[in-house]
Write a structure and sequence with these properties.
Layout lengths: L3 E6 L2 H23 L2 E5 L2 H13 L11 E5 L1 E3 L9 H8 L23 H15 L13 E5 L22 E4 L9 E4 L1 H4 L4 E6 L5 H7 L18 E7 L13 E2 L2
Parallel strand pairs: 1-9, 1-10, 2-3, 2-5, 5-8, 8-9
Antiparallel strand pairs: 4-7, 6-7
């Protein structure tokens, strides 16, 4: 796994716009090199603001949206169209405004599909297996970029500290009893996250600063899930100044554009 690098921006608004620009650049580079690209989305305030910033810039047209696969790191187990679903936020902020192929938008199914949470997780795992190629060396595609938010408790996706999902070696799991609502969720596991070529953890706000410090240290991933959020080729912690305020100088490389 790669060693994290840290990039700090002035505030949450600048952070969202900077991450948006970085995503566009990365997707264009990947598509130029191999034709298609894959992006794993996250929810949360900054995650959705980033997608809205992509939609708002003319530079979005540099991406060939029809040659992009969209995945999610986690989803709230709620019916399609529910305002609390990460998918709903992503569609409203970006996906409804670009020419994505519907069959390349890979959603995690909710209870209106007739599936249980466990069956939904199994269905998503099967979809990941179908998309994986021999060079991925496993049941999950080597995602080009995975975006992850991070909570003040250091959770990423729907992997919360101390919960059984952190011990699971499957690619996708159902999460029950999540400490923040809704309690039932579908989530990629750490092994699936670590299959990504690049993992970008995006966080803003002083309430995240302690979790950021721990995530960049040698803390174990069971108590600090974000410490296990690492990409094979690159790991970035993209932060605003408040979220970065407790990082000691010896942890990571910090630049402040």
């Amino acid at each position: 796994m790669s060693v994290p690098s840290v990039v700090v921006h002035r505030d949450a608004d600048v952070l969202a716009k900077a991450v948006a620009a970085r995503i566009i650049t990365r997707l264009v580079d990947v598509q130029s090199a191999k034709g298609s690209a894959s992006l794993v989305l996250t929810g949360g305030t900054v995650g959705i603001a980033t997608l809205a910033a992509i939609a708002a810039t003319p530079a979005r047209d540099a991406v060939d949206w029809r040659r992009l696969d969209i995945w999610w790191g986690d989803e709230r187990f709620l019916p399609s169209g529910d305002k609390e679903r990460n998918e709903t936020g992503a569609r409203e902020a970006l996906l409804d405004h670009v020419d994505v192929k519907p069959e390349r938008v890979h959603v995690m199914l909710g209870p209106d599909s007739g599936l249980t949470a466990e069956e939904s997780a199994e269905s998503y795992a099967a979809e990941l297996r179908r998309a994986a190629r021999p060079e991925d060396h496993g049941p999950v595609p080597g995602f080009d970029v995975m975006l992850l938010g991070m909570g003040p408790d250091s959770h990423v996706a729907s992997l919360f500290p101390g919960m059984p999902a952190l011990y699971d070696t499957r690619a996708v799991v159902a999460v029950h009893g999540a400490p923040k609502p809704p309690p039932t969720r579908i989530s990629l596991t750490l092994p699936a996250i670590q299959s990504s070529r690049e993992v970008w953890v995006v966080a803003a706000g002083e309430e995240k600063s302690g979790a950021v410090r721990l995530a960049l240290s040698e803390s174990g991933h069971v108590q600090v899930p974000a410490s296990g959020a690492r990409g094979r080729a690159r790991t970035l912690f993209l932060l605003d100044r408040a979220a970065a305020s407790k990082i000691p100088p010896e942890l990571g490389r910090i630049s402040s554009p």
